[in-house]
């Protein structure tokens, strides 16, 4: 790997003139000013180029990137090998055939099954949201039940069943209760009340609440991230995931892991391989194609078989013009091949950098007299300004100093280190990062803390 030049200091005033001008143009023609409202943050920097571990904005400033577009770039932006695979697919006249199967979708499915043992059969989608929608529909068809369980602090997509507030105010949900559940606070207008009544929200790491709901016999599936990575990096407590597995088995409920963020970033076999578990269904996205748009749903052959059930009354629809698009498929095939190569060399590099960042950050905050806990799983990390790694959203909302988090992120952005400028958002290291990047990040963090 080549070592990029050090990041230049970005303007302390936030977005520069060129970024502001582009944002003004966007607001005149794009509803909301951005094409995904999750990207609407301050400073509203307009990025125009990315390479490896670097982002470049419209004003010519360079940043070391730990956002990674919400984490798909496990290998780094515009990885030459992945891009070469996409160019090769174009050169070979691969196209969107739209009839029958293709060699690349078969090769991708075989690679996915080889990487993740629980994927007896797979289907390819374009996004993680599509994959979670399929998982819920499959579970309902399999069990004949309508209700589902989701996790407070988790994010599972934008469709009606899951579009609820990830980080609600405690005043809106009340104190932590166990066993118990929390209100569905819609993330969007236009969601029917009947949909919300079928969705039950419990805290992460709260097995008694799941058990109580499963005992009603109404739950089709428990859909959860095995690690909450939309409120930082909140890991499961010992025994929690196994408890979910056992409880779902007893009650005939489908256990579905949303590994859109953890999948392939945590390990080649997903976080489930680290936990030693086999969920009934799993969904993947993001890192599987290193930034190209592709989602995956897979799992037990009998449940997945409902996509082609002989009985039309049990058959579950799966359709999509762009499913397994040849360019995204080429990227995913190349990404999985890269992750398999060298007996885990990519993951060893990521772990080395993760340890360097974690150790350095801990020392910086300790030296500054700031209470902190760093949660890290491989290349995913989050700094919590409290004396422990949180166990659920109530813990984060009650104990983490979100104001300090927000101010530090802004200070780092001003100095050329890009972490998403909202508290508790996961940081992501890529294979393109170097030890020099980590050293520069630590040096900049120390300076930012002093300035604050």
What characteristics describe this protein?
452 residues; alpha/beta; Aspartate Aminotransferase, domain 1; Aspartate Aminotransferase, domain 2; seven-stranded mixed beta sheet
Structure description:
- With 452 residues, this protein is an alpha/beta fold.
- It starts with 16 loop residues before the first helix and ends with a helix.
- It contains 15 helices and 14 strands.
List the helices and strands and how they pair.
Blueprint: H1 17-29, E1 47-51, E2 54-57, E3 62-65, H2 80-91, H3 103-115, E4 121-125, H4 128-143, E5 147-151, H5 170-173, H6 193-197, E6 199-202, H7 207-214, E7 219-224, H8 240-251, E8 254-258, H9 271-275, E9 281-284, E10 295-299, H10 301-304, H11 326-340, H12 345-367, E11 373-377, E12 380-384, H13 393-399, H14 402-414, E13 417-418, E14 427-428, H15 435-451
Parallel strand pairs: 3-13, 5-6, 5-7, 7-8, 8-9
Antiparallel strand pairs: 1-2, 2-3, 4-10, 9-10, 11-12, 12-14
Helix pairs in contact: 2-11, 3-11, 7-8, 12-15
Describe the structure concisely for a colleague.
By secondary structure, the chain is α/β, with parallel strands linked by helices.
Average pLDDT over all residues: 95
Query: What is the CA-CA span between the terminal residues?
Result: 35 Å
Report the C-alpha radius of gyration, rounded: 22 Å
Give the CATH superfamily of the largest domain. Answer: Type I PLP-dependent aspartate aminotransferase-like (Major domain)
**Relative strand content:** 5-15%
Structural class by secondary-structure content = alpha/beta
CATH class of the largest domain: Alpha Beta
Total number of strands: 14
Helix count? 15
Shape: globular
CATH architecture verdict of the largest domain: 3-Layer(aba) Sandwich
* Proportion of residues in helical segments: 25-40%
- CATH-assigned fold name of the largest domain: Aspartate Aminotransferase, domain 2
The poorly predicted ranges are 1-7
Order of helices and strands: HEEEHHEHEHHEHEHEHEEHHHEEHHEEH
Largest sheet data: 7 strands, mixed
Total number of distinct structural domains: 2
- Physical arrangement of strands within the biggest beta sheet: 4-10-9-8-7-5-6
């Amino acid at each position: 790997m080549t070592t990029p030049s050090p990041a230049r200091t970005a303007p302390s005033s936030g977005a520069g003139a060129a970024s502001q001008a582009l944002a003004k143009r966007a607001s005149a023609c794009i509803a909301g000013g951005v094409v995904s409202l999750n990207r609407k943050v301050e400073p509203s920097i307009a990025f125009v180029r990315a390479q490896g571990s670097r982002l470049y904005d419209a004003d010519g400033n360079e940043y070391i990137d730990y956002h990674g577009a919400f984490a798909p770039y496990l290998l780094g932006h515009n990885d030459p090998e992945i891009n070469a695979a996409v160019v090769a697919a174009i050169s070979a006249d691969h196209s969107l055939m739209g009839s029958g199967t293709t060699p690349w979708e078969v090769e991708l499915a075989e690679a996915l099954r080889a990487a993740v043992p629980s994927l007896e059969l797979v289907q390819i989608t374009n996004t993680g949201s599509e994959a979670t929608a399929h998982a819920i529909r499959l579970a309902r068809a399999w069990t004949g039940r309508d209700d589902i369980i989701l996790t407070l602090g988790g994010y599972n997509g934008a469709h009606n069943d899951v579009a609820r507030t990830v980080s609600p105010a405690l005043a809106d949900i009340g104190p932590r209760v166990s066993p118990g559940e929390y209100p569905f606070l819609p993330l969007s207008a236009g969601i029917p009340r009947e949909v919300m009544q079928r969705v039950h929200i419990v805290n992460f790491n709260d097995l008694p609440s799941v058990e109580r709901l499963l005992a009603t016999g109404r739950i089709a599936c428990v859909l959860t991230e095995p690690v909450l990575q939309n409120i930082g990096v909140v890991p499961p407590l010992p025994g929690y995931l196994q408890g979910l597995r056992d409880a779902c088995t007893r009650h005939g409920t489908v256990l579905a892991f949303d590994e859109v963020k953890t999948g392939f970033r945590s390990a080649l076999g997903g976080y489930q391989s680290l936990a030693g578990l086999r969920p009934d269904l799993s969904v993947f996205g993001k890192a599987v194609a290193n930034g190209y748009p592709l989602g995956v749903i897979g799992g037990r052959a009998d449940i997945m078989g409902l996509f082609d059930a002989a009985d039309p009354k049990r058959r579950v629809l799966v359709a999509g013009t762009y499913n397994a698009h040849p360019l995204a498929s080429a990227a995913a095939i190349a990404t999985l091949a890269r992750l398999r190569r060298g007996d885990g060399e990519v993951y060893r590099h990521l772990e080395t950098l993760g340890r360097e960042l974690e150790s350095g950050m801990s020392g910086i905050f300790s030296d500054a007299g700031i209470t902190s806990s760093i949660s890290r799983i491989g290349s995913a990390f989050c700094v919590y300004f409290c004396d422990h790694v949180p166990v659920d959203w109530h813990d984060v909302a009650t104990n983490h100093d979100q104001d300090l988090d927000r101010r530090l992120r802004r200070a780092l952005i001003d100095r050329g280190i890009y972490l998403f400028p909202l508290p508790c958002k996961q940081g992501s290291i890529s294979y393109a990062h170097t030890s020099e990047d980590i050293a520069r990040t630590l040096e900049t963090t120390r300076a930012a803390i002093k300035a604050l």
